Automatic annotation (TrEMBL):
<keyword id="KW-0288">FMN</keyword>
<dbReference type="InterPro" id="IPR013785">
    <property type="entry name" value="Aldolase_TIM"/>
</dbReference>
<dbReference type="Pfam" id="PF03060">
    <property type="entry name" value="NMO"/>
</dbReference>
<protein>
    <submittedName>
        <fullName>Uncharacterized protein</fullName>
    </submittedName>
</protein>
<dbReference type="InterPro" id="IPR004136">
    <property type="entry name" value="NMO"/>
</dbReference>
<keyword id="KW-0560">Oxidoreductase</keyword>
<keyword id="KW-0285">Flavoprotein</keyword>
<dbReference type="GO" id="GO:0018580">
    <property type="term" value="F:nitronate monooxygenase activity"/>
</dbReference>
């Protein structure tokens, strides 16, 4: 008799959960509302702290971005961005506000984690990452998922916090090889991760694989390599596969092979609770497999999967590091800034930058449409309406389908009955 995801439970931090993680998609694509639904239903929801001052301004009418832009307005015309620094206390304040409001609204038996990217270098990589990590713990976050980088120094950044051994901590890796140095560093502080998310080559957004060789890798093989590595070293740490888990049966296959839960995201991009604009959600639903590309336009240095129709591709907007500057390295450099200035010198009139994109502005405006490889299958998860549009879903419908479906089936929503169940954090 076939099993469903609901026949399994994730044991984490002395508690049991429905073994479903909803991934942390930034900037505010995995909204607090989406994370709250996952937690209400007994699973694990993620928010993302990517560009958290911007997210706070949008949600709570703060003015962190305007303050920073005003402070560094004198530098807008300069190629040298090294002077542009984040106010660490204001950054921490934005993080505490976003996380705190989210945690105050939490209901149900699940938990809420925050996704923290190491590649948000922010012109002071160590200090800005530490400010975000500590502020999230201050505000009561249940767990922290360390992503987009090796995070060899991240455990040390948290060691003095009173919740260092209380908050759940996980790391995203794409191979057992990438996991080894992280565990070696973590062992020095006697603080191994509480879970390990293994992200495969079909995931959305930034990838831990080469732009030309990602097709050579397989999530099931990578997960088994990680499981074998942990077993050989007598380490009992839950492993969470991510990237291409499209049905409940996909999830069950991993759970039966030794994984403790799965992380999913793509199917939640077309829910009411997702932060993408409705028009963009319909682009996802209308996508075909040929629309999906992996390119190197991200200034982080990582390949990135997205829809080829993304309006931010080849755009030539002026970089606004004075207001944002999340990708500036410790010397105040960003590959997009370099590419923009190169094109500015070569051209008059409208500029197009083919090889890089300004992630700060483009993600803020939802103009880079990152997606998992299976985005083209989203049209099979809902109804096409008489007006030619697709019916958006509720997060609960997608979560329950993962939880209870069998035999690779997907239960379609009741026709035209999906309504938003968003919780307003601004009023919380």
């Amino acid at each position: 008799m076939s099993k469903a995801v609901d026949d399994f439970r994730l044991k984490l931090g002395g508690e049991e959960y429905v073994p479903i993680f909803v991934g942390g998609m930034g900037v505010d694509i995995s909204t607090a509302e989406l994370a709250l639904e996952a937690a209400r239903l007994g699973g694990i929801g993620h928010i993302s702290d990517a560009m958290v001052p911007t997210v706070s301004d949008r949600r709570f009418q703060t003015n962190y971005v305007q303050e920073k832009q005003k402070k560094y307005k004198f530098n807008i015309g300069s190629i040298d961005k090294s002077v542009v620094q984040f106010d660490l206390e204001r950054l921490a304040e934005a993080q505490r506000l976003f996380v705190g409001r989210t945690m105050d609204a939490k209901k149900g038996d699940g938990v809420i984690f925050i996704n923290c990217m190491e590649k948000l270098t922010m012109n002071s990589s160590r200090d800005t990452l530490q400010a975000r990590l500590l502020a999230a713990m201050d505000a009561g976050i249940d767990g922290i998922t360390l992503s987009a980088g090796l995070h060899l120094g991240s455990i040390e950044l948290m060691k003095e916090h009173p919740r260092f051994r209380d908050v759940l901590v996980g790391v995203i890796v794409s191979s057992a090889r990438a996991l080894r140095p992280f565990l070696k560093r973590a062992a020095k502080f006697k603080r191994l991760p509480d879970y390990i998310t293994v992200e495969g080559p079909l995931a959305g957004g930034h990838l831990g694989f080469g732009v030309d060789d990602w097709q050579e890798y397989d999530l099931k093989t990578i997960v088994q390599d990680v499981l074998n590595f942990l077993s050989e070293n007598e380490l009992d740490i839950p492993v969470i596969p991510a990237g291409g888990v499209f049905t409940g049966t996909d999830a069950v296959e991993f759970l039966e092979s030794g994984a403790s839960a799965v992380q999913v995201a793509t199917r939640f991009t077309v829910t009411n609770e997702c932060g993408l604009p409705e028009k963009t959600k319909h682009h996802y639903l209308e996508a075909v497999e040929e629309d999906i590309i992996v390119n190197t336009i991200s200034p982080t240095g990582y390949p990135m999967r997205m829809l080829s129709q993304s309006p931010g591709i080849a755009d030539g907007i002026r970089p606004n590091c004075e207001a944002f500057g999340y990708i500036l390295d410790n010397s105040g450099h960003c590959q997009y800034v370099d590419a923009y200035n190169r094109e500015l010198e070569k051209n008059e009139g409208k500029i197009s930058v083919l090889d890089k994109t300004c992630l700060c502005t483009q993600f803020r405006k939802f103009r880079i449409w990152t997606c998992g490889h299976n985005v083209y299958r989203l049209k099979d998860t809902t109804h096409k309406l008489e007006n030619g549009k697709y019916q958006l879903l509720r997060a609960e419908e997608v979560f329950r389908d993962y939880q209870f479906s069998k035999d690779h089936t997907i239960k379609l929503p009741d026709l035209k009955t999906s309504v938003s169940s968003e919780v307003s954090l601004a009023a919380a």
